[in-house]
Write a structure and sequence with these properties.
The complex is a heterodimer of chains A (266) and B (228).
Chain A: H1 6-44, H2 52-77, E1 80-83, E2 87-90, H3 95-107, E3 120-121, H4 135-155, E4 162-175, E5 178-191, H5 197-208, H6 219-230, E6 234-239, E7 245-252, H7 258-265
Antiparallel strand pairs in A: 1-2, 4-5, 5-7, 6-7
Helix pairs in contact in A: 1-2, 3-4, 4-6
Chain B: E1 12-16, H1 20-33, E2 38-42, H2 45-55, E3 59-63, H3 76-87, E4 99-104, H4 114-119, E5 124-128, H5 133-144, E6 148-149, E7 159-160, H6 162-172, H7 178-185, H8 189-202, H9 213-223
Parallel strand pairs in B: 1-2, 1-3, 3-4, 4-5, 5-6
Classes of the chains: A alpha+beta (266), B alpha/beta (228).
Amino acid sequence: MTENSGPNKQLKQQLLQQRSETLEKTYEAVHNGPLQELAILLRADANGGLGEPLRSQLEKINQDLRGIYQSMRLAIQDEALYLESGLSLNLDLPLATLLHQVFDHTLARDFPGYDSLQFQITPDFSPLSTAVLTVELKRGLCLFLQEALCNVGKHAIGITRLTVTCERQEERQKEHQKESQKQIYCLRITDNGETPSVIASLLQSLTESPENDRLEKHQGTRQAQALAQQLKGKFLRRQNTPKGTICEIFWPCEPPSVERLDQRLD
Amino acid sequence: MNLETQQPDKPPFLVIDDHESVLKGTVPALQKAYPDAEIWTAQNYTAAAQQIQQIRPHLMVVDLSIPATKGEPATPEVGLKLVEQLLTGTLIDKQWAPNVAVLSTDINPLVRLKATIKAYEGGFAAMDKALPLQEMIQYINFAMRGSVYLPQAVKSRPELHANWVEVLHLRFEEGLTDKAIAKRMGTSDRTIRNYWIRIQDALLIGDDPDRDLRVQIELEARRIGLIN
C-alpha cells in the first residue's frame, strides 16, 4: 500500500484538516484582535504624530502578521503554485482569483512582446466559477494561461491588443446521426501581433500532430495537450485574422459525478 | 424614481462594521466630507441587508470582516458575500445600485470580482482599513463620482473593462449617442455616464475647461490602439 492510498491517506487528510482548522482559528483571532487594533492605530495617526520610524514599524508589523498566515497556509497544505519572481499562489483559492493573479503577474513581466502593448483589458473569469476542478487541474489551467501569455510576450511582434476571454458555451455534437448539444467551458488567449513565420509554423505543426517527435522540444504545447486530455477537452492554437494567434482550451461542463463529489467531501 | 433621477436633500449612506470603535472614526469623517448625508450604520450582514431595502443608500461603506448575525464571529467571507450580492443586483434592484466602498485589512479576496466591479452600475472603491481617514475619504469620493478604484501593486498600463472599450467603439466608430449606447448595451444611462468617467480615469485624462473631454478621450484611445 502506498502512502497516498487507503487509511494512510485518510489519516493524512484528517491531520491536514485539523492543522488547517487550527490555523484558521488562529488567523481569525489575529484578524479580529491585533490586526484591527493596528488598523485603528494607523488610521488615528493621520497627521503623522507617531513619527516616521514608529509608523513604518507598525506598517511592517501589519504586513508581517498577514504574511505569516499566508506562508503557514501554503506550508501546511502544499497546494501552492510557485511562479517566477517569487509569487506563490494558494491553489485552494477560487480559480477566478488564481487566473487573475497569473494574468496580472505575467503581464507585469519584462517581455519584448509587451513593449507595444499600451493597455490591457480586464479578463472576466467568472464563467468558470461553476467548474468543479481538482487542485491539479487548477494548477494546470494557471500554468496554461501563464504559458500562453509568456508565448505572446516572447514571440509576438507589435501587439496592440491582448485579450483573455472565458466562456461557458453550447457545443453541437453529432453522435449516431443524432445532433445533441452540450455545455463546454472555454479559456482563450488572443493577440493581434505578428509571429515570425518560422515560430508560427513550428507551433502550428506541434498543435496539429501531437505524435510529432519535435513535440519534445516544446514543453508548453505538450503540457497544454496533456491538460486538455485530463479535462477530457481539447487544445487548439490557430491564426487570428487579420494578424495574431488564438490559443484556446475547451472542456465539457459535466456535472460532478457521485464519485467526484465523494472525493470532495472527504 | 431611482438613482438616475433622484437627488434627495439628504442622501442616505450606510456604514457596515462590527467594531464600535471603527464606526466612531468612520462616521464623523464621512459626515464632515458629506455634510448633507444621512448616515446609517449596521453591525452585521442581516441588519445591513434589511436596511439596504429600506433606505436605498447612495453609498455603502462595507468592512469585509463582519458577522452574519448578531453574536456570530466576524469573517471576511460574510462581507465578501454581501459585496458580491450588491454587485450582481441580488440584494437590491440594479436601478438602485449604490456606490460601494470596501474597507478591509485584506482586500485580496476581491480580486476574483475585478471584472464584475468594473462593469458595475455604481462607483466602487476598495481600500486598506489602515489608511488614514483623509485618504479613505478621497477614495470614497472616487466611488461617489461613479469611478472605480482598486489598489494595484504596480500601475503599468491602463486596464479597461471590455464594456468600456465597447462604449468607445459605439461612440467613435459608429457615432452613437450615449442614450443609444445604453440601449444597444442593454444598460442604464447612469451606467454609461459612469463608464465614461472610468475611461477618463483609466486614460489619466484630467478635467480641463479649455478642452473638450470626449475629444481628448478619442485622441488618446486612438493613440494607444483602443479604437481604429
